[in-house]
Amino acid sequence: MTAKTPFRADHVGSLLRPASLAETRRRWKRGEIDAATLRAAEDEAIRKAVAMQESVGLQAATDGEFRRDYWHIDFLSGIEGVGLSTQSSARFQGEAEVPPTMTVAGKLRHTRPIQRDDFAFLKGITKVTAKVCIPAPAMLHLRGGRAAISRDAYPDLDAFWADLTTAYRTEIRTLGAAGCTYLQLDDVTIAYMCDPRMRELSRANGDDPAELPARYVAALNAALVERPANMSVTVHTCRGNFKNSWMAQGGYEPTAELVFGTLAVDGFFLEYDDARSGGFEPLRFVPKGKRVVLGLVSTKTAELESPDSIKRRIDAAAQFAPLDAMCLSPQCGFSSTHHGNNLSEDDQTRKLARVVEVARDVWGTA
């Protein structure tokens, strides 16, 4: 891990799409404008988003995932062999709409850089550290499981994981060669596998939920074995973030010792904004030298958390892990999908500024 990342004040990645950009993307999907016109609109929106992140004092900037519809699908669809299905038994609480499920119809291959050009643009316009967020390998498996993976292409799942992690290693090398020093992998399985309902859904897909956490950890570690020495890597987990709704619930205890103890990453972004996340006791498994980014500021509500309430929760977490090993962030992105959560852009800016404010009070720096 570098001396600074993850930063004391950090954030998960996605930002609310400006209304003008959302309309431009809809026009592009209807065939009314070309890809170059859409790209120019994205560029303009990203410049403004980066300026906002810098203005509130953040030391890492993302592109807000403005070029994606979904935090995971757009990236994973860039791997040859990945397709989409509208069939899914997993639903978000209170939501009728269900995001597509990814399928594997053929052999997985990395045939082109997926994130490199987007990263290069971001790096060229920010004064702070350009942070790239991509889904963890497990996200190609979680929702569809064995049932969504072609048995003709992969009669043996070991071959599926080998091809998938090979594709990841190629992409990560490409990002490193382009100058990426801060990579975040988003992996909801860390939290989902703590929920009995989600484990039953995995069993219905033809998988053994007792074996999946170790399989997912092994896949992420395999994806990182060739990462550049100067690349700091973190992992983020949550319990679902789709139009203010959530998918899973339950504390980290069932997977904490395995995940915290064996994942080859430098830090963990952990959702901790409400009771669904459980207590801080699992933080006792975080090894010395790794950082925990406490997601204490909610992206699911417009209410701005008070500095005192956040500091009290940091103090509570410090009963189980050293204060010097901690950082602060929102619990998830503000717009994991193109829909966005039900907050305003002003609410978003205030929450990010509050993260920086509290971090400076607690640690003396953001």
Structural write-up:
- The protein has 366 residues and is of the alpha/beta class.
- The protein contains eleven helices and ten strands.
- The protein has a single domain, classed as TIM Barrel, CATH 3.20.20.210.
- Helices cover 36% and strands 14% of the residues.
- Helix 1 runs antiparallel to helix 2 and helix 5 runs parallel beside helix 8.
- The radius of gyration is 19 Å and the shape is globular.
- The mean pLDDT is 92.
Topology:
Blueprint: H1 19-29, H2 35-55, E1 60-61, H3 73-76, E2 80-85, E3 101-109, H4 116-125, E4 129-130, E5 132-135, H5 157-177, E6 182-186, H6 189-192, H7 196-204, H8 212-223, E7 232-237, H9 253-262, E8 267-271, E9 291-297, H10 307-317, E10 326-330, H11 345-363
Parallel strand pairs: 1-4, 5-6, 6-7, 7-8, 8-9, 9-10
Antiparallel strand pairs: 2-3
Taken in chain order, the helices and strands follow as: HHEHEEHEEHEHHHEHEEHEH
Average pLDDT score: 92
Classification by helices and strands: alpha/beta
Number of strands: 10
Within the largest sheet, what's the order of strands?
5-6-7-8-9-10
CATH architecture: Alpha-Beta Barrel
Total helical elements: 11
Count of spatially separate domains: 1
Distance between the termini: 17 Å
Summarize the amount of helix as a percent range: 25-40%
User: Cα-atom Rg, whole angstroms?
Assistant: 19 Å
As for the CATH topology, it is: TIM Barrel
Q: Biggest β-sheet, characterized?
A: 6 strands, parallel
Task: Just give the CATH class.
Answer: Alpha Beta
